[in-house]
Design brief:
By secondary structure, this protein is an alpha+beta fold. The chain is built from three helices and four strands; from the N terminus they run ββααββα.
Length: about 70
């Protein structure tokens, strides 16, 4: 999923991390640390919308990415 993505948004509680994958060029280890939860599984929900990969849930993050419904 990351191969086609240009932007990664990760919610970890109230904290939101946004990476431009083409510009920031994170390592695989950094990506895993962000995307995996405490159990070692991929944070849920995980959505790919176009070239955006959204991992985890944060209401404000969803509103900023998808707009208010």
């Amino acid at each position: 999923m990351l191969g086609a993505a240009t932007d990664l948004y990760v919610a970890k509680g109230k904290k939101v991390v946004h990476l431009n994958l083409k510009k920031d060029k994170p390592t695989s280890e950094e990506l895993l640390k962000l995307a995996l939860g405490p159990t070692g599984n991929l944070r849920a929900p995980t959505l790919r919308i176009g070239k955006k990969l959204v991992v985890g849930f944060n209401e404000e993050m969803y509103e900023s990415i998808f707009g208010k419904g």
